[in-house]
Specification:
ABC transporter transmembrane region fold, Rossmann fold, 3 domains, six-stranded mixed sheet
């Protein structure tokens, strides 16, 4: 059985201590048997025969045992508690270590609350079960064995009857064990789901309020809470029933044995001392059975908890070093994506791959960017480059060496990565930077911070590099967190700098400053950037444009504009909003030619259009903010100048994402045509800058341009029909 394999595996390192615990338990067992046996000799040899010397010997033996056995038992319990503590610590360490080596697909399909539940509820169940193993498992088992032997010596016929009947006391627990085990596993699963509800409520408060989902969220929590309560009641009842069925059967059996042994003593078949001793020993025997019966439900809980823990420990990383893998030499010539086809684990095999027959070569020292529409596969390229996943077919090559033939550590050692979310641990700034090189000297950390242009800020803090970052780096602004993350990446002095939407979560001014830093840092390095902001790739050596998982075009910025392909269309959309940073101030201005291409604005005269542009107001939104929500009055039209938003609509008590919009996209245009309520919610995913036009101002345009009113009505009708 898996549970017994668990006991054997985790207790094996403590064999010597377990032998000592067993010896101490044998001494405890002997003391438990000594008392009833002393009753027999006290009655038959001392009291009836008036033997004072025998009485003193018996009392002295009992007194000596009363002094030695409790001290030994206390030492045994302390020794065993240490073993349990170390086993639980080992379990936690193995689980955490396994999490560090699992591939990203595990995190994509696993809820955080489920993992936390395994570390809390399941570990606690195993710990509780192990903690009482000696007192409720080993000791009763030893007492049962010795009591049975002594009973057979005293009166074998009566002992045989009692011993044969005692196992019937476990019939009830045995019959109920399967349902109890199922209820225990269900309870632990429902505890995990309840934690998930709490986690979701903590991570998405803005979304919940935007859709007025407070009551729906509370209702979902209450439903899960009631299910957990119901399962807990059922498990508690089954556990109690298992214990009570054994207790009742034992009481009946004790009464039966007392009646029979009393009859034998009355007839003179056994002595009074034997009768008294037999009763005491049989009580010990029967209660040992009862303790084992009551321990059984705990064993069930241990089994349920261990099953979930073992599920995690059995997880195998999808990406693992091959047995013959070797360290990857430093990049000398080029990185090549050779005929790559890839789809994420769990995706429909018949569906379109995330990347399809991708062939790209990046020369050492080049600065390149991967751009494309949302879902084009650009982030997937980085996932394969960093070997978070392996391609379905094809290969990622460093100087002709397939990354699958190299150790993952040696691949990532050559890279410094800056992600979109600049995550900082709740540790000191020094410790956060030193993650890039744990053995770094003070000078190396300072030099990395200077290179990231964050040293002066850190030095000005009261605690300097010893300043705590707070949870997820909450004590610092987005730009400061990002520069600390850049310092962390630079500390490795990587030959390859990888940027994954590294500035998309920043405000425009900070983005501009950090882009200048990246341009400086790229000198002498290979820089690979994934971004949807084309303004940050103007000076790249080459730009790879992806569309639906394929390489659509590549070249420099000017070459791609001349090709008038996907890149040119993306540039045209994004360049409709010109954003400049002058003396630390950001300013967004709409381009008249771009605005004229909007369906609503076709036919508007140049003078009116120029005046209209002046009516647009600049609005800034922090990340995870609702710009407007479904059902609000429609009173403004928005153009997204910077940042990313998502379009959400209520569905089945939740929210369904309809679209993801970025720079150059617009939304809310129906508000200019009608005062109907909003039909969707817009929520910022990153800090956003929007240019908004109020409906009242647009109505002025209609008054000035009566010739376009018919066109506006036509657009309204077509949009309403869709």
């Amino acid at each position: 059985m898996p549970l017994f394999r668990f006991f054997a595996e985790y207790f094996r390192p403590y064999r010597f201590r377990l032998i000592l615990i067993l010896l101490a338990s044998l001494l405890d067992m002997a003391f438990n048997a000594q008392i009833p046996m002393s009753v027999k000799f006290m009655i038959d040899r001392a009291l009836i025969e008036k033997n004072q010397r025998m009485m003193l010997i018996i009392l002295a033996a009992l007194a000596a045992s009363a002094l030695v056995v409790p001290a030994t038992s206390l030492w045994r319990d302390y020794l065993y508690a240490g073993i349990v503590s170390r086993i639980i610590s080992t379990l936690r360490a193995r689980m955490f270590e396994r999490l560090q080596w699992l591939s990203l697909d595990y995190y994509a399909r696993t809820e955080v609350a489920d993992v936390i539940s395994r570390f809390s509820n399941d570990i606690a169940a195993v710990q509780r079960g192990l903690a009482i193993t000696v007192s409720w498992g080993l000791r009763p088992l030893l007492d049962l064995f010795l009591s049975a032997v002594l009973l057979m010596i005293l009166e074998w016929r009566l002992a045989t009857l009692g011993i044969l009947l005692c196992p019937l006391c476990l019939l009830g627990p045995h019959l109920l064990s399967k349902r109890s085990s199922q209820s225990s596993a269900l309870k632990q699963e429902q505890e995990s789901q309840l934690l998930t509800s709490i986690q979701e409520a903590m991570l998405a408060p803005a979304l919940i309020r935007a859709f007025n989902f407070q009551y729906a969220t509370i209702g979902r929590f209450q439903k899960r809470n009631e299910l957990l309560s119901s399962t807990s009641i059922r498990l508690g009842f089954l556990t109690s029933l298992m214990e009570r069925s054994a207790s009742f059967a034992i009481l009946v059996l004790q009464a039966l044995i007392m009646g029979i042994s009393g009859y034998l003593a009355f007839r003179g078949v056994i002595s009074i001392g034997t009768f008294a001793t037999f009763q005491a020993l049989f009580v010990t025997l029967s209660y040992s059975f009862m303790f084992l019966a009551q321990y059984y439900p705990n064993l069930v809980n241990v089994s349920g908890g261990f099953h979930r823990i073992e599920e995690l420990l059995r997880e195998k990383p999808k990406v693992a070093d091959a047995p013959e893998a070797s360290n990857l030499p430093p990049l000398g010539k080029a990185i090549e994506f050779r005929d790559i086809t890839f789809r994420y684990p769990g995706a429909d095999p018949a569906g379109k791959p995330n990347l399809q027959n991708l062939g790209v070569s990046i020369r050492r020292g080049e600065s390149v960017a991967f751009v494309g529409p949302s879902g084009s596969g650009k982030s997937t390229v980085l996932n394969l480059l960093l070997r978070f996943y392996d391609p379905e077919s094809g290969a990622v090559l460093f100087d002709g060496i397939d990354l699958r033939q190299a150790t993952q550590g040696s691949v990532r050692d050559q890279m410094g990565v800056v992600f979109q979310e600049s995550f900082l641990f709740n540790a000191t700034i020094r410790e956060n930077i030193a993650l890039g090189k744990p053995n770094a000297t003070e000078q190396e950390i300072t030099d990395a911070a200077k290179a990231a242009e964050i040293h002066d800020f850190i030095a000005a803090l009261p605690d300097g590099y010893e300043t705590l970052a707070g949870e997820r780096g909450s004590r610092f602004s987005g730009g400061q967190r990002q520069r600390i993350a850049i310092a962390r990446a630079l500390l490795k002095d990587p030959s390859i700098l990888v940027l994954d939407e590294a500035t998309s979560a920043l405000d425009p001014e900070t983005e501009h400053a950090i882009n200048l830093t990246f341009e400086r840092l790229a000198r002498g390095r290979t820089m690979i950037s994934v971004t949807h902001r084309l303004s940050s790739v103007l000076n790249m050596d080459r730009i790879f444009v992806l569309d639906q998982g394929r390489l659509a075009e590549h070249g420099r910025h000017t070459e791609l504009l001349q090709a008038e392909g996907i890149y040119a269309k993306m540039w045209q959309k994004q360049s409709g909003v010109q954003f400049s940073v002058v003396e630390g101030q950001g300013k967004a201005v709409l381009d008249a030619s771009w605005l004229r291409e909007l369906p609503l604005m076709k036919g508007v005269g140049a003078d009116t259009l120029a005046e209209l542009i002046r009516w647009f107001a600049t609005e800034e939104f922090a990340a995870d903010r609702v710009i407007f929500e479904e059902g609000d009055a429609g009173n403004a039209f928005y153009v997204l100048a910077r940042g990313t938003v998502e379009v959400l609509r209520k569905q089945d008590g939740g929210a369904r994402r309809l679209a993801k919009l970025s720079q150059g996209d617009y939304f809310g245009e129906m508000a200019l045509l009608s005062n109907q309520p909003r039909n969707a919610t817009i929520r910022s995913l990153t800090p956003c800058v929007c240019l908004s036009l109020h409906r009242d101002l647009f109505q002025r345009l209609l008054a000035q341009e009566p010739t376009i009113q018919e066109q506006i009505r036509h657009v309204f009708a077509s949009r309403a029909a869709s």
